[in-house]
Amino acid sequence: VTASHNPEPDNGFKVFKAHGDQEPIAHLMDRLRVAFLENPRGQTVSAAKAPIALSLINEFVEHIAEPLDLKWTKGPLALNGLNGTASLVATPLAERLALDVRWIRGEHAGLPVTGPDPLKPPLAAEMSAFVRASRTGVGVAWDGDADRCVFFDAAGALVPNAYVMAMMADHFLKNAGAAGVVYDPKLVLSIQKTVTRHRSHGVRVATGSSHMRAAMHHTGAVYGGESSAHHYFGRLGGIDSGMLAWVTMLQIIEHSDQTLCELASAYRQEVAVLPELSLKVDHPEAMILDLDQALLKGKACLEVEGGKAT
Q: In angstroms, rounded to a whole number, what is the distance separating the alpha carbons of residues 37 and 8?
């Protein structure tokens, strides 16, 4: 039950079936309507089984940590779960991996009023300042349900997720065999260059977790990345996980013998990624034509997601 990166009033829920497939919302709503019609007052059905609470955190932590080849030597880490669910897993995971971590927020501060989205400029600025003040080498921030994961270097600079996706793809494609990667249609140049470098293959799919998970299952991909900072993993059955993303990035940094800033700089030399700007435009079609003409002079092209001005 989660509002993800949205404000608390937007709480909702997702239902997953046994093999990790998400229940389509239309099917779920049909089932709920039938259930309400059969039992309109919500009375307890005598034959129903009592729910059983399962504590799976320790098992999940071990599932993440056991296969890792990680002995972190790069000093303390700055963590920020925006008072969502991240600390419930990141704290025991840090203990399991002997990581020295510094949390930015107290447990009882509550979720940010605007929603626990680590990419919102005020929250990103807060985390950037904390990384610098705590003199940590890497900063990690998650959204409310900890499936999105973003990274800050030692100077407090937010690493563009296009570079993070490319780093992850580089890491997993080294030993992927015939397996490839999947990615959404935004900020694709870095990960495409990585795929080419490994002489592998990548599948470009529509934005959205249901599309990404379906593509992961269908293609048997080893990794999937979205520009929204969701990272999907073949070893988790195609599910996205901010926890596995975090420790995978630590592996990448440790094994590279470079800082996160130095790693990002190498990808920046291949592809320049500018901050995303959101603008309200009265006549988007005219703006797109003008931009197309301007870009064509440089033999470039403009790609607009879904035909919308973004």
A: 29
